[in-house]
Amino acid sequence: MNNTVLETLTITVDDKDLDFDRARQLAEDRASVRVASPMLIAWFDGKKGEEHPQVPECQHKPGWLAYAEGHGGRVRVDVNENEYSFIFADAGETID
């Protein structure tokens, strides 16, 4: 299991029509400042209350977050105070 601590970055977007796809693109752009090849591995859509992956057996924190922490997540980007959250691994990094 990977014990890397996630670096959290934030973005504030003043756009009432901000949707998931635009938020994801902004988050990926922001993550690319910290990792060479950002690869989205987990996300939370606070507007819809949806997450990926769904890990219902996780009891100590949201399943999507636990999954990302254990599968190479390096950078978390929160958009508009967790309206959307995205976690990226570095696709060019080897995970032991």
Can you walk me through this structure?
This protein is α+β, with helices and mostly antiparallel strands and 96 residues long. Helix content is 21%, strand content 29%. The protein is built from two helices and five strands. The chain has helices at residues 20-31, 63-70, and strands at residues 7-11, 38-45, 50-52, 75-79, 84-90. The protein has a five-stranded mixed sheet, with helices on both faces. The chain is globular. The model has no long low-confidence stretch (mean pLDDT 90).
Features:
96 residues; alpha+beta; five-stranded mixed sheet; 29% strand; globular
Q: Which H/E pattern describes the elements? A: EHEEHEE
Largest sheet data: 5 strands, mixed
**Structural class by sheet pairing and helices:** alpha+beta
- Lateral arrangement of strands in the main beta sheet: 1-4-5-2-3
Number of strands: 5
**Low-confidence parts:** none
User: Helix coverage percent of residues?
Assistant: 10-25%
Radius of gyration: 13 Å
Q: Helical stretch count?
A: 2
Span of the ends, CA to CA: 8 Å
Overall 3D shape: globular
Strand content: 25-35%
The whole-number mean of residue pLDDT values reads 90
Kindly summarize this structure in a few lines.
Helix content is 21%, strand content 29%. The chain is α+β, with helices and mostly antiparallel strands and 96 residues long.
Task: Explain the layout of strands and helices.
Elements: E1 7-11, H1 20-31, E2 38-45, E3 50-52, H2 63-70, E4 75-79, E5 84-90
